[in-house]
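Re-run requested by the PI after the first attempt was lost when the workstation crashed. Everything re-entered from the original request form. Ligand of interest: magnesium ion.
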Amino acid sequence: MNSNLLLQTRNLTKSFGDRKIINRLNLHVMKGDIYGFLGRNGQGKTTAIRLVTGLIFPDSGDVIIDGHHLRNDFKNTISNVGAIVESPSFYGYLSGYDNLKLMANLIPGIKKDRIDEVLDMVRLNHRAKDKVKTYSLGMKQRLGIANALLSSPKLIILDEPTNGLDPQGMKEIKEMIVQLAAERNITFFISSHLLHEVEQICNRVGIIHSGTLLCEAEVEELTQKSKGKSLEDIYFDITGEGGDLA
Amino acid sequence: MKLLQNELYKLFKTKKLYIFLLILVVMRIMAVYLYKAGTEFQTVIEVANAQSLPIAMKYDAVQFLVIFMGIYIADILTDEFKTGTVKLTLLRPIGRAQLLNSKFAAMAAFAVLLNLFLVLATYIVGLFAFGWGDSTVYHGVTYSVGDGLLLTAKVYAASFLPIIAFGMICIFVAAASKNMVTVVAVTFILFIVGEFLSALSVIPSVIRTCLIVNQLFFFSDYFVKNNHHFEITLSVVVNLSYITVFYLLTLVVFRKKDVLC
Ligand SMILES: Nc1ncnc2c1ncn2[C@@H]1O[C@H](COP(=O)(O)OP(=O)(O)O)[C@@H](O)[C@H]1O
Ligand SMILES: [Mg+2]
């Protein structure tokens, strides 16, 4: 057992009806990773994240986070995690600050100024008193990250955090992730279908295709082995799909 | 406890609550206005004074309370599962049973709030329209002011039990269905069908007594007179059974529910 292992799934399997959406998934996320969970739309990324965060239940297999088994120790397991699953949802009629206040109520022993602290980290203080329904998608995404940071978790899981953002918004989020990882010692697990996006900030990747993990490796190792090919080309090599989507 | 605090905080921040309260007040004002306009033969008002008004009108608002409960429950359950805000709570160290308990408590608090408000509003509307009066009159019996207040309190307090039983049934419907309209529609249809059944004299009266609709309307009546021990015992058992059975059913649904928002 590797003590550096922060998130591990063991043969995680889930079907909807008779369609197997996740098939014997074995993920390994190390402490300090910015882990890119890659796959095209509909390959099972969000479903896997739902399983890892206990929002849905696997047919079989286990999720282990920092030594805690999700199946029989949900509260201690989830206490180590902050997450945005699918998209950041908040109460639109409340301000960003009030949304976080409600969440802070649910975290035992949280410090009073923690809300201001996390709003500061995602640079949202100036709009914190405005109702969330007036926020742009990028701001909601940042509020989602603030919410994930609230309990000072070891692991933050973000589901397509740059999806739908303009180039400036994407850049901000990516910079934020890199900075938080470096300064606060947070491990990130980020799903994305934008391969080159992830290449810039991730040190490790897992590639999921039709619910199966095809490859899991260090980004450096991958690009070295394939003599400097881009992650995108490697992806198409691995999944056996032509680079040309047409 | 923290979860319930959160629910109440959200409740007081939504416009819907204030619309509900406004509707209740307007209904009371309309009833009093109609009475004054000379349609008293159709109203439940026996004696035009403020202290007799809440108890005389206790059934008047049941339909509204039931609809408001349905909407509120759909809001805090179905809608949260649909819009994804329930993830905020479920991604915290909160068990599914804890979440259900907080929704149950919120529903009960909502019912208490609406009823208290309704009684107060009725007294106030009555005060403006008729003045306080010398004594409370209900079903032809005259009570002193103190006894009248006590009777009103007793009747409204008793009405909570079936209201909460009804709310628990709504919670089950809300937990099991995917959109808000279904919840409100199903609970309303249940209510109408129940009203119909409870009026069918071919069904033995003991069974009719057990219908939730009957309970909503008549449970508190048993407390007005003193000789209804059997009905009270039966009704308490019936209501507690509704609460227990639907709580357990909801818990089973909740525990296994896939959160796909
Ligand atoms: N509730 C559901 N019922 C049936 N199929 C679903 C459900 N949710 C997702 N799927 C299917 O599972 C597959 C993976 O979906 P998802 O995990 O959302 O993919 P991704 O996040 O990688 O885009 C898709 O083919 C999708 O159609
Ligand atoms: Mg997805």
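Saved to the shared folder this time. The pocket of adenosine-5'-diphosphate (ligand 1) is lined by residues A 16, 21, 39, 41-47; B 260 (CB under 6 Å).
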